[in-house]
Every structure is written in structure tokens, then in C-alpha cells.
Automatic annotation (TrEMBL):
Cytochrome c domain location: 28-107
Gene3D superfamilies: Cytochrome c-like domain
Superkingdom of the source species: Bacteria
UniProt keyword Cell cycle, yes or no: no
Taxonomic lineage from the root: Bacteria, Pseudomonadati, Pseudomonadota, Betaproteobacteria, Burkholderiales
GO molecular-function terms, A-Z: electron transfer activity; heme binding; metal ion binding
Protein name as it appears in the record: Cytochrome c
Source species of the chain: Noviherbaspirillum sedimenti
Keyword annotations of the record: Electron transport, Heme, Iron, Metal-binding, Signal, Transport
Signal peptide residue numbers: 1-26
Record has DNA-binding as a keyword: no
Length: 111
């Protein structure tokens, strides 16, 4: 196989691998976000909020599918608390970001 063909083929392969990798990562983050929402965060977000993707039907806080908060709004609420919602001091930086992105993604909010 001529050199340029080989090079093009390996570039294409690398692109496919990168794509597959990022999809896999996105998938993991979705699973992790859902788990944070329904289980890991204590008290669980799902107790107070409805979020269809997570099968959550809490009715104390706003319905997140309707509110469609973007990631920074979720982060702020989680870090500082708001109204009756507690601040979550026990979550790591990474967990807060994963959770915020998850909620923004599944509700269709922009970043
Ligand atoms: C004890 C019940 C409770 C729990 C648990 C709870 N929330 Fe809330 N949440 C509320 C209430 C009540 C509000 C409305 C507060 C207000 O506007 O006065 C709210 C508001 C919000 C808002 C909107 C903030 C804004 O800017 O208007 C977001 C986003 C949110 N919660 C996400 C979450 C996430 C994510 C979790 C889990 C880490 C969570 N909530 C856990 C009760 C709760």
C-alpha cells in the first residue's frame, strides 16, 4: 500500500477511535450523573425533583424537565443550596460537574 494511503487509513482509524472513546466517555458520564441524581448525592436530588431521564418524581422542588436549568445554574444550586434545598458540601468538584452536565443534557438545556 502506498505511503499516503496508509497514512490516510491510519488517520481515519485514529478519528474513529477518538470518536468511539468520547462516546464511551459520554455514556459513562450519563450513567454516573444519573446515579449521582438518584443515589449518591445525600439527600438524593430525586427525593425533591422530577427528572424523567432518572425516573425521578419528587415534587418538593421545581420539575427539572420544565425548568431546564443549564449546567451552571445546576452547579450553583448544588454548591450553595437555594431556598429549602441544602448545599451539597460532600460532593467532589468532579461529581458536581458531572451532575450539572447530566441534568442540563437530559433536560435539553444549553451549556
Ligand atoms: C430537600 C429537597 C431538595 C433536594 C434534596 C434537592 N433540591 Fe433542588 N431544589 C429544591 C427546592 C425547594 C428548590 C427551589 C428553591 C427556590 O427557588 O426557593 C430547588 C431548586 C433547584 C434548582 C433550580 C435552581 C434555580 O436557580 O432556580 C436546581 C437546578 C436544583 N434544585 C437541582 C438539584 C439537584 C441537582 C439536587 C441534588 C444534588 C437537588 N436539587 C436536591 C429542593 C431540593
Amino acid at each position: 500500500m502506498p505511503f499516503y494511503v496508509r497514512q490516510a487509513a491510519s488517520a481515519a482509524l485514529a478519528a474513529v477511535a477518538a470518536l468511539a472513546g468520547s462516546n464511551a466517555l459520554a455514556q459513562v458520564n450519563m450513567e454516573e450523573g444519573k446515579k449521582l441524581f438518584t443515589k449518591t448525592a445525600a439527600p438524593a436530588c430525586a427525593l425533591c425533583h422530577s427528572l424523567e431521564h432518572a425516573g425521578a418524581q419528587g415534587a418538593i422542588g421545581p420539575d427539572l424537565d420544565e425548568l431546564k436549568p443549564d449546567a451552571s445554574r445546576v452547579e450553583k444550586a448544588v454548591r450553595n443550596g437555594i431556598g429549602q434545598m441544602p448545599a451539597y458540601k460532600g460532593l467532589t468538584e468532579q461529581q458536581v460537574k458531572t451532575l450539572a452536565k447530566y441534568v442540563a443534557d437530559v433536560t435539553g438545556a444549553a451549556k
